[in-house]
Specification:
mainly alpha; disordered C terminus; cell shape; cell membrane; 9 helices; single chain; transmembrane
Length: about 220
């Protein structure tokens, strides 16, 4: 059942991301690179599922990009890129599934954006595609990092939370003092962690119940 949920969720997210990227993001005519929503999906899922699943999801997502119109490159090129990225990002998954700040996930997004751009350009150079050289590799790197960093806070935490909930991961319901990798983006800079906020709400609810009980006892004594 867990494997089925993983396949279903990954397939749905990849297809939705591909449709949004091809029909919306690619048509924005932004300077430099195109915001890579599929890359962020692969990064988020690899951080939850690990390197093996990350590589498989990356390969499938990249293959869809290679086959989807208006593809102008050799089939398998982006599949190789996302497969490698998914594998490497999956290796960065912490053993306990927890990170205490957004620095780690943000650094992973930057590394994935830079690595995917360089790897895509390198594979293109091997097969005789020098489009990146004409556009400007430095410009592509800078814009890819900027666009992906702008999208990451709105996509990566949500995707990771969905992935954990679909697998009934205990960390999805954790109320500890540390934050998990899915909430790292949201916890950074707020001064309060998700678990701490829940703990405060529970303490307030307990105090309210105690206050109501005291009022009821006072009425009975009268």
């Amino acid at each position: 059942m867990m494997l089925f949920n993983r396949i279903l969720l990954s397939t749905t997210l990849v297809v939705v991301a591909l449709v949004v990227q091809v029909s919306i993001l690619a048509r924005l005519q932004l300077p430099g690179a195109v915001p890579d929503l599929l890359l962020l999906v692969v990064v988020a899922l690899a951080l939850v599922y690990g390197h093996v699943s990350g590589a498989l999801i990356g390969f499938g997502a990249g293959l869809l990009v290679d086959l989807a119109p208006p593809a102008d490159h050799a089939v398998g090129r982006y599949a190789l890129v996302l497969c490698v990225i998914g594998y490497l990002v999956g290796l960065a998954k912490p053993e306990n599934g927890q990170l205490r700040s957004a620095t780690g996930p943000m650094a992973i997004v930057v590394a994935a954006a830079v690595g995917s751009t360089l790897l895509y350009a390198g594979v293109g150079a091997l097969v005789g595609d020098n489009a990146a050289r004409h556009v400007g590799l430095v410009s592509l790197l800078i814009t890819a990092v900027i666009y992906d960093l702008l999208l990451a806070p709105f996509t990566v935490p949500l995707i990771m939370a969905l992935a954990r909930r679909a697998e009934n991961d205990p960390l999805a319901e954790s109320t500890g003092t540390g934050t998990d990798v899915a909430s790292g983006f949201l916890a950074n800079g707020t001064g309060l962690r998700i678990g701490e906020q829940r703990g405060v709400l529970r303490m307030r609810a307990a105090r309210n119940r105690a206050a109501r009980a005291g009022r009821i006892k006072g009425v009975k004594r009268l």
